[in-house]
Amino acid sequence: MYFPSQELPAILQKVSERLKAAFGPTSTHVDIEVGFRALELFSPLCLHPVADGCQALFNTIMESPHLTGEIKWKAARLALYGAYKWDLYMPWLNDAKEVITFFEHTLEFPCAEEEQDMALQSAYRALAYASKREMLDEYDMKKRLIVDGTVAAFSHQKPFQLWKAVLFFLDVVEGQWFNSGAEIMNEEKRRELVQKLVDNMDHIEPTIDVLCAILSILFGMADSPMWRPHLPIRLWSALGGFPALPETTPSLVRCRDNPDVIDRLRAYEEKSVLKFWMGILWRDWVDLRPEVQARLVEVTREVVGPGAEDQALISAAIVGTHQQLSQHMEKFQPWSIEEEALACRARLEKLEQGRLKLEGVLVGVSGKGLS
Amino acid sequence: MRPAQYLRYRTYTEFVRRRRGLKGESEGEEPPADPEEAGENPPGNEQKIEAVEPLEEPDPSARDEFHQAYTKKLEAADKDVEDYARTLDSVSYPVSARMPHRHPPLQSLHTGSSPLGPVIFRSCPPFRRLRIRTLFNPYVPWVDVILHTSFLTLRSLGFYGVSASIAVISLSLFAKQYLKHRSLKEHLRLSSTKKRGTLAGFTWLTEGGVPLVALAVLSPFLLSQVLSKTGQSLYATLNVVAATFFAIGFVLVWGPALLHTFITKAFQPRAPSRAPRLLPPAPLPKREVAPFSSAPGGEETQDSTAPLTVTPILSPVGVDYPGNLTDARRLTWMLERSSDPETIHTILRFILEVLWTPDHLQDADSSSSALVRSYELLWEAFDNDYATQPALLRGMRDQAFAAAKAFVHIFIQGDYSSDDPVTSTLRNLHIPLYSSSSLKDDANLRSVVGIVDNLLGVRKPIQWSELQLTQLHRLWLSNVLLYRAWYATKRGSRISDDVGGFVKHSLSSDPRPRLAVVTDCVLVVGLIVGQPLHEADLLVLEKT
Questions:
Q1: Do A37 and B500 touch (CB under 8 A)?
Q2: Same structural domain, A72 and A176
Q3: I need a surface site. Which of A62, B235, B304, B535 has the fewest CB within 10 A?
Q4: Are residues A274 and A336 in the same domain?
Q5: Would you say the pTM of this structure is higher than 0.80?
Q6: In this predicted complex, what is the ipTM?
Q7: Minimum-distance CB partner of A8 among B52, B522, B530
Q8: Are residues A275 and A355 in the same domain?
Q9: What stretches of chain A show up as alpha helix (H) in DSSP?
């Protein structure tokens, strides 16, 4: 006995259950064929239950012992597409193991181009948008297969959603790729990837998320001695999105503690990027390592001229952050001992120390301090 | 669980409200909103889905009251129909008379005894030109007038060979006109056939005969003056040349037609017993209005398998109504007798509101007759005389759209299969419409005629991605295609590709279609994976 299905969620749940049964352990060849046909129609639907249902179905398919060969991977492609096609909702990955297995298989055994792109796009979206960096750190993302496949997919000739997902995927795996010390690709490939990053910047709207992802990758590359020489000045224009980048971004923290980054920036003819970077360092003066502090003072004396423009540029980060913190502090009473207020006050204090130190250095250079 | 319990609510929203009210929940509570509007669903906080429970029986006294009001309305509708039937005698003849000209195959469909009519228009170039002339006035036989005049003139001048040839051609045309007229009479089959025949004869006489006589009288005088000085040698030469010319012309005109007719008749299967045949007018059956009765305690005494007379969407108590007269039969009766375009359009639109399922119709003739008539009306809107691709006639778009929808609705709800006699007859006559260039800018119409093509065996997939359908049309399509999928599942056959294509396109289209469309599409997917579908789900249009 059954009842009419009055509500869409109830219908969707029933269909999801049927689909799972169609690919389940007791399914026959006919069931699988029917399941394929239904899944092909079902997966493009942009609804929460569909995304959740498809993710569960993907896990069922991947874990199913009796599904083998192309049937398994075709069903997995459709299910993963159903789970991660919708920008507004993507179910979080509790464990990336199955997706990574699928990802590696897709790269190793490519299918027709359109289908391949769709499968890779779904996998990249799942890994980049719906999983956490810490979770991916448990898996080896430096495999040659993954590296080559990612570089190949990161081209604006590919579907937009595909290479956009790759951009965010690079942000997630930058720690493994750029901070490991291992040579994951040769020099030519490295140059190619950097060039693709520069090219793709022109083909995507520079939203805050995009700029933050690019900056995260950029700082990761700048921190690595293998990647740093290939960075063109054009890539550093993404620094415009710096205020939105969280201060705890791992690549930024690593880059800030690396005095060689300053030397690389000194090598460019255009000095404004160097000055902007020095401004960032002066903002975090208190937290810098001593050797970085020494290099910073040295370069500041060397680069900053007596004009007001240089001083304004180099102090821009301090002034901007100070304004932000001051506005934030207005929410609290002056005597507040809330944790957030205390942290904010400590940060202001550090800023002030950096500002005083910078002023001292600038007095030495131009004979007058910060205005 | 009987479907009747669900038919009292037009929408799911109404149903859900009612259900929740009965369960003691707050009256003001809205039914579950669109999941998309509900915002992002955080992980681990999945939406709760309530178990589906049957609806309790409504209050019987309220149903009695509603039934009485409904009966009164039906009585009024009956009276309107009878009044309309009386006024049908005044339907103008020419409007119906135009119909068989539009689609030649239909002529043979109705007459069966007219071997030449359908072929002439399709295969003979001279008669295409004739159609161009008749565009000016289709009821004036200008060719006959000219031929008769020439015949009389030349005979009076002594050109006997030429005049004899003209006489043969002229008689042939007369034969053709006679056959066409006979086919018209058979097609119309109105109650006052004799009266209409007189009217037709009168039209012939006034519009064709009078000019013919006038020209026949005057022309010899004029031409004899011009040709009075013609010599004997010229006369002989002209006579031979003209006789040869007309002989060749005769063969060219009639040869292909006769050959085509022979081939068609020799190889075409005989029309089956259920072939489209316009029924002679039947008197309106008396409505048996039985009082609605419910046994004490809410138990219904009506047989639950009683035929559903009126679509429950329009009349919620229809499922319990015991009469045999269905709205479908009523509509068929009216459709057969109407020739006024506005009336036809209204009937065609009303067809979509009535159930045509075999379970609910007692006689198959009703649906097949309406099906064929819808098909005729669809073809009436197309001109197929000049090219292999039919062209939509100017000003006939609405009729074509309504007729195509009615055809699809009856065909699918009536569960006509490919081996059905009516289907096979229509399939033999059908010319694909989907690729007609005149429909290029009309996605809605194109989508429906594409389904018509598919239903009649044309294996050309509809390119749904090329069609920008309106929301309302998509809603109608989703409902009717859900029926198609349902019947396919019932028969154990594969759901057709055009249904799958529609579902895939609708579910992935941007912006997303209405929730009712999405629900229909998901129900189709459910049918594919074996999720049973309750009949009540088919009846609800707005599944919100």
A1: yes
A2: no
A3: B304
A4: yes
A5: no
A6: 0.76
A7: B522
A8: yes
A9: 8-22, 29-42, 48-63, 69-84, 97-108, 113-129, 133-137, 144-153, 160-178, 187-201, 208-223, 250-256, 259-267, 272-283, 290-303, 308-314, 316-329, 339-366
